[in-house]
């Protein structure tokens, strides 16, 4: 029983990060129909920026309280990621907005490589130790189940941000403009919506979420590296598709479900298949679930909008 | 002096091919001399150079002729393609034996070229088992391979650490999986029970799910076959899950990097292994270090004693067989057994060093300490 609870908890932590990143994918897809494959790299840029800022600050003022350090690092990461995403949209994607769908997709893959290589030049090839400013000392709320403050922070921060985003999209004027743009660019612009601005904002907003995800991810594992964005990016994309790409609630649900499936899959796949499969199929397990869901619900768990967009 | 000259002349006449001039025998040394591990490459070359100079100073006689050895030092940049180009260049230059290369990744493709040319090669540092499993007749190494390492890891976990229940994780790379498989075999042979066999990737950072599963199996020792970038965070997560098992990993995790990445989660119950033995514990280690320092003005990095022994093995075999021709001295090289700097140098039928040494390190006071 403790094992199952622990696995669910593990899944929830990983799933929260996936969900945050998945939101970025899904927002951009919802509004542009573009799968921004470079989104995972934004997470990496966030983590490494925070690393640089935090270690510089630690060098200058070693007495700064850890939470303030983390706050400043996070803020810097968000700002840098927002700039990166803004430039990405302005320079790489805007010109291709009316091009055949394949063109921006390939461009996105190119941008992903570009960002990775740039990060390799700036931060080097080595793995960096990311300062774990929120404690990782385990606590035992239930006998045999371990959780630590950074894991709690990850789950709570993700939940708060996601609720905030949903409120933004559903309750504000800006959110209405975003939804209108997603519905139809031309009609939205006829209604007085500055479509270019809204699209840029969507990118920037997604990047801020990815920055948070990057800092949380790096704080959890205490490691940062120029190629760290690839796997979470891929998983988050999967999560977005699982939940129904283009749908905010779907991205969150998809992220959490994927995290849980992975953890429980890795833990129990051997028992479930009577020893035929083992944890080296952890990733495949997640994709099998994705396949099954898509067979019965081609638009994902919560996806409805996608059908009239595609 | 005159006496020796006469003696040489007489001996020469006895064989019937007297020659006053020294015979020149070229040996090759290949290692990365540029790039990120160039310090290790230069170290290897210097090891071989010291052996050649020692042999020249001693005045080695091969087939009755006084021989002058020359070392051709080449740079393979740790790049497989450059490695094969350089190998071909050495073959064309008619070298009689090779000390090298440094990396498994360059040694394996280059070994094919040397094999086709029939030139014996001895790597002082390539540990991938595949090198000596290709069926080549003239490929050797003076360092223990990963199979031998795995058996040490398994035995250490089961016997020294007293592990009755062992959990094994690998990263599904050729290196990690090979090491883990050998560990499993050795641990089982030593009477331990492998209670969990889990897998991750060489890109993963989250191991909570597999570690939670391992925790339920309650092992005494957790073994990981993989690199420091995974081993570091893994040690952290082991602590976060309240697992108290001891932890051991191979040379991929036996780095200062690993200590940095594991942060405050690393403790004296974390171990790692590395091929070879520390210089201080080698039979000829102290003397080698002093002479090396005096000659090159640099400290021994890691593999130069193995390069020295590799070069010496070739020279010995030539001396013993009375010929510098690869086809003639190869048999002598195969049956070689002499005390080298690093230990007794003798090869098994595949070309691996017999009794290849593996050292276990324990984490202590912020560093790896040899046990």
Task: Write up this protein.
The complex is a heterodimer of chains A (about 300) and B (about 375). In chain A, about 75% of the residues lie in helices and about 5% in strands. By secondary structure, chain A is mainly α. Chain A has one domain: ABC transporter involved in vitamin B12 uptake, BtuC. A two-stranded antiparallel ribbon of chain A has the order 1-4. A two-stranded antiparallel ribbon of chain A has the order 2-3. The longest helix of chain A is centred in the first third of the chain and has 31 residues, at about 1-30. The model of chain A is unreliable at about 305-310 (pLDDT under 50). Chain B has about 375 residues and is α/β, with parallel strands linked by helices. Chain B folds into two domains: about 1-145 and about 280-345, Rossmann fold, CATH 3.40.50.2300; about 145-275, Rossmann fold. Chain B is built from twelve helices and 15 strands. Chain B has helices at about 1-15, 40-60, 80-90, 105-115, 145-160, 175-190, 210-215, 230-240, 255-260, 285-295, 305-320, 325-335, and strands spanning about 25-30, 60, 65-75, 95-100, 120-125, 140, 165-170, 195-200, 220-225, 245-250, 270-275, 340, 345, 360-365, 365-370. The radius of gyration of chain B is 23 Å and the shape is elongated. The interface between A and B is medium-sized, with 37 and 32 residues.
Question: How do the strands and helices of this protein lay out in sequence?
Answer:
The complex is a heterodimer of chains A (310) and B (371).
Chain A (H helix, E strand, L loop, with lengths): L1 H31 L6 H22 L5 H28 L8 H22 L4 E2 L9 E4 L2 E3 L1 H23 L1 H11 L1 H6 L4 H27 L1 E2 L5 H14 L4 H25 L9 H15 L8 H5 L1
Chain B lengths: L1 H14 L7 E9 L6 H21 L2 E2 L2 E11 L4 H13 L4 E4 L3 H14 L3 E3 L15 E3 L4 H15 L4 E6 L3 H16 L3 E7 L8 H10 L3 E5 L2 H13 L5 E4 L6 H7 L7 E6 L9 H12 L7 H18 L4 H9 L3 E2 L4 E2 L12 E7 L2 E4 L1
Parallel strand pairs in B: 1-3, 1-4, 4-5, 5-6, 7-8, 7-9, 9-10, 10-11
Antiparallel strand pairs in B: 2-3, 11-14, 12-13, 14-15
Helix pairs in contact in B: 2-11, 3-4, 5-6, 8-9, 11-12
């Amino acid at each position: 029983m403790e094992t199952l609870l622990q696995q669910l908890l593990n899944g929830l932590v990983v799933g929260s990060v996936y969900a945050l990143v998945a939101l970025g994918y899904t927002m951009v897809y919802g509004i542009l129909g573009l799968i921004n494959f470079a989104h995972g790299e934004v997470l990496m840029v966030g983590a490494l920026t925070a690393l640089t800022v935090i270690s510089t600050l630690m060098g200058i003022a070693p007495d700064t309280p850890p939470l303030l350090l983390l706050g400043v690092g996070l803020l810097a990461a968000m700002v840098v990621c927002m700039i990166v995403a803004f430039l990405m949209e302005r320079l790489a994607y805007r010109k291709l907005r009316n091009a055949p769908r394949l063109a921006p997709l390939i461009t996105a893959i190119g941008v992903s490589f570009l960002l990775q290589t740039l990060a390799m030049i700036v931060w080097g090839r080595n793995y960096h130790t990311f300062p774990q400013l929120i404690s990782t000392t385990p606590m035992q709320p239930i006998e045999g189940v371990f959780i630590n403050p950074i894991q709690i922070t990850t789950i709570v921060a993700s939940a708060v941000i996601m609720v905030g985003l949903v409120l933004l999209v559903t309750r504000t004027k800006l959110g209405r403009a975003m939804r209108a743009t997603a519905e139809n660019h031309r009609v939205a612009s006829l209604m007085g919506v500055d479509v270019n601005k809204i699209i840029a904002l969507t990118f920037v907003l997604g990047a801020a979420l990815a920055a948070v995800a990057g800092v949380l991810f790096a704080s959890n594992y205490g490691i940062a590296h120029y190629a760290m964005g690839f796997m979470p990016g891929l998983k988050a994309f999967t999560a977005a598709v699982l939940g129904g790409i283009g749908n905010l609630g779907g991205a969150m649900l998809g992220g959490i479900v994927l995290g849980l499936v992975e953890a429980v899959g890795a833990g129990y796949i051997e028992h479930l298949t009577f020893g035929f499969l083992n944890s080296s199929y952890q990733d495949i397990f997640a994709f099998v679930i994705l396949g099954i869901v898509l067979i019965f619900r081609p638009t994902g768990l919560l996806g409805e909008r996608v059908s009239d967009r595609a | 002096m005159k006496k020796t000259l006469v003696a040489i002349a007489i001996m020469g006449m006895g064989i019937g091919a007297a020659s006053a001039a020294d015979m020149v025998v070229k040996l090759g040394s290949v290692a990365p001399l540029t790039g990120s591990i160039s310090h290790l490459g230069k170290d290897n070359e210097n090891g071989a150079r010291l052996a050649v100079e020692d042999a020249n100073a001693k005045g080695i006689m091969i087939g009755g002729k006084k021989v002058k050895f020359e070392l051709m030092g080449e740079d393979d940049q740790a790049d497989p393609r450059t490695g094969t180009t350089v190998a071909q260049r050495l073959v064309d230059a008619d070298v009689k034996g090779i000390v090298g290369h440094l990396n498994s990744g360059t040694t394996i493709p280059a070994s094919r070229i040397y094999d086709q040319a029939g030139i014996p090669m001895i790597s002082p540092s390539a540990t991938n088992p595949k090198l000596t499993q290709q069926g080549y007749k003239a490929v050797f190494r003076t360092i223990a391979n990963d199979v031998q390492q795995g058996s040490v890891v398994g035995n250490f976990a089961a016997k020294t650490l007293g592990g009755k229940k062992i959990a094994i994780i690998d990263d599904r790379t050729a290196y990690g999986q090979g090491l883990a498989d050998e560990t499993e075999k050795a641990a089982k042979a030593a009477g331990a029970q492998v209670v969990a066999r889990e897998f991750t990737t060489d890109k993963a950072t989250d191991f909570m799910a597999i570690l939670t599963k391992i925790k339920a199996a309650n092992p005494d020792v957790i073994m990981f076959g993989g690199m420091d970038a995974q081993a570091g965070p893994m040690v952290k997560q082991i602590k976060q899950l309240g697992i108290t098992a001891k932890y051991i990993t191979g040379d991929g995790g036996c780095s200062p990097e690993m200590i940095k990445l594991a942060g405050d989660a690393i403790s004296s119950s974390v171990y790692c292994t590395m091929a070879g033995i520390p210089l201080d514990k080698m039979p000829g280690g102290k003397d080698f270090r002093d002479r090396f320092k005096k000659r090159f003005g640099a400290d021994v990095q890691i593999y130069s004693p193995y390069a020295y022994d590799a070069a010496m093995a070739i020279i010995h075999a030539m001396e013993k067989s009375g010929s510098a021709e690869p086809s003639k001295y190869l048999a002598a090289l195969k049956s070689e057994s002499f005390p080298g700097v690093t230990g007794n140098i003798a090869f098994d039928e595949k070309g691996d060093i017999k009794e290849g040494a593996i050292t276990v390190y324990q984490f202590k006071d912020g560093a790896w300490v040899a046990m």
